[in-house]
Amino acid sequence: MADEDFTTYTEVDEDGDVVVDSAVKVTWTTMRRDAETYLDKDYGAAHFGDFVATFAITVTDVEAGDATSASILGLCALSNAIGVMDDLNDVDLLAVNMQQNQATDDQYGFYIRQYDGGVSQFIEGSTLNFHTTAEGTIYLTFSRSGATVSLSVYSDADRTNLLYLYTTAVASLDTYRYIHAFSNWGRDVDPANHQSGYLENLDIGEPGPVVGAPMGSVVNKMMMLLVEADDD
Predict the structure, then answer these.
(1) Residue ranges of the domains in the chain?
(2) Between the ranges 68-82, 101-115, 184-198, where is the mean pLDDT highest?
């Protein structure tokens, strides 16, 4: 597996908030909640099915604005259209959400979001509140194997200190054409809400054991069977 090359992605940046720092790092600065901003790549129809993705995110600032709505950012967002998250909710979507605690500046959590044909299937995930001044870089592993989707959140690059593991069943076994390294929420309300941070080392590869899940777990048993089938 290898990191995605962000220099080959298509950048939509309404306000000039985004800088592709290198092939493996992209930064956004004071990006408003309503900005039409995302970074995507077309891999062709039905390219993504089962996958294991790893990436790191550092959130340096998240502002609550008027405290009535949250800043939301889609990470490793797989879909059958391109756009901001508010548009992708109208199609097929499977993504990690970084969502700000709307009542408090600089607090956020991570969630799994699935939409099928514009219908919300679930938005599930961490009840933990991370804080920009305390957490530093957060390391995530996001995977799907058959009907099982998993999100693991770590505090270290070696992924040994597990902060949170969430595993659930997907409601629909969609396949996806596009990947968004990140996609802003893009809803035209509460533009005072904004965020800053950067994403690094997005690697989305072939099925394999899920880091952070016990080797005897359903997730890893399914992954190991897929690898064995490929080897045959």
Answers:
(1) 6-231
(2) 68-82
What does pLDDT average to over the chain? 84
Q: Which residues contact 71 (CB under 8 A, 6 or more apart)?
A: 33, 62, 63, 64, 65, 99, 100, 108, 185, 193, 194, 195
Helix (H) / strand (E) element for 34: namely none
CA pair distance 5, 54, nearest whole angstrom: 14
d(CA 51, CA 181): 15
- Joined tokens for residue 186: 């893009």
Q: Read off the pTM.
A: 0.85
b/e burial code for range 210-227 (CB count within 10 A of at least 16 → b) = bbbbeeebbbbbbbeebe
145, 50 Cβ separation under 8 angstroms: yes
The CATH number of domain 6-231, selected from 1.20.210.10, 1.20.272.10, 3.30.365.10, 2.60.120.200: 2.60.120.200
